[in-house]
Amino acid sequence: MDAPSDQSTPTGAASAHLTPQKAVRSRRRRPTGAPPPLPHHLRTSGVGWLLAAVVLVGLALAVFAPGLRGPAVAVTVADDAVVRGLGELHAPGLEVLWQGLAYGGSWWTLTTLESGLLLALLILRRWRHLLVWLVAWPLVNALAYVLVATAARRPRPFGVTLRTSWGGWAMPAAEVAILAAVLVAVLYTLVPGGRWRNTGKWAAAGLVVLVGVARIALGVDAPTDVLVAVGIGVAIPLLAFRWFAPDEVFPVVYRRGRSAHLDVGGARGVAIRRAVEEQLGLAAGEIKPFGLASSAGSTPLRITVSDAPAGQLFGKLYARSHLRADRWYKLGRELLYGQLEDEKPFNSVRRLVEQEDYALRVMRDAGLPSPDPYGFVELTPDREYLLVTEFLRWRGRAQRRRSRRWCHRRRPGDHPQAVARRAGAPRRQAGQPAGPRRPHAAD
Question: What is the pTM of this model?
């Protein structure tokens, strides 16, 4: 945590220029009444697909569940007319084209895609996406094969020859539903968000349309069967991934780097700036990763503060992934070396940040060269927290010698972090400065 080379003013002087009156006006303690900075977003398209799936399934059950009578007859006549119209088209190579496109929805193709997706998620170790897909996939199968199909009990189109493989009831077109669901899962688990994913959405939509038209032309599915299948196959995995694996928290990336380093752009960057301003009374500007090569248990950040003469502060972003990593690390140490002192794992991300913040205060009070803590802020309750300190500066040779003598002569139990753990870090509100009142603290 060395200070940047272009910084000439010691960061420890930042607190001396922050007046209490200014901090009182800008600081707002939690809870502020605002929603968490990183909420789940279904977006407009997600809500649209949800409404479309509910309306299509509801209409299908209302029309076809009573049997082939009343409005079901009129819909069947219209569907059969479309099926016969496409089936009577004749052109050189058209039949081969229909058969080739319909093969994209065959069970061999779908099984290969499903197996390849599972294997790719295992290799890439995207456990969250894998878990969401393992829940959404059976749900799509249940709706397409059991619930809607057995309730509607719609037969295949009348008066045409069925020229490709089929099975079960006609509504919904199960093959099209599974194909759409797999393509949506591929987009949200293997394709990075942004331009590539948007392009992939158009390609996936075109493929589903071509397979659906081919199956209609070959006489095995009707247009309404395909529409209901697309609604089911797209809505379920789309809502599942956007709700339980949002890109802001679980981005799909292929860059090199440690998995502990989180993306601080987009919604998370906005959340950091807002939390620092509301809970510490500091106006944060630019936020950049700092010293990633030497960090594996957190996301270190350089935070530019506009209302402090020092200009920059150091931040460590902690999330649930870091808590799990800490637990696995301590379990490995216990297996290798046995039970060690103060190796109990933390039970929450907040407790992990509290402990480090308290240990920094103990080290500061003991006269050791350590960064002066500003406190920690809460980004998302029980999920993400940010510890804010100054950049560590060596203030002279005498301090280095005192630190070196203390480190060489101390006993294992004299370490400030061990003392802090045995004493028990007092719980305090997020954003409350550690130790004595600082000039920027609110009254």
Answer: 0.66
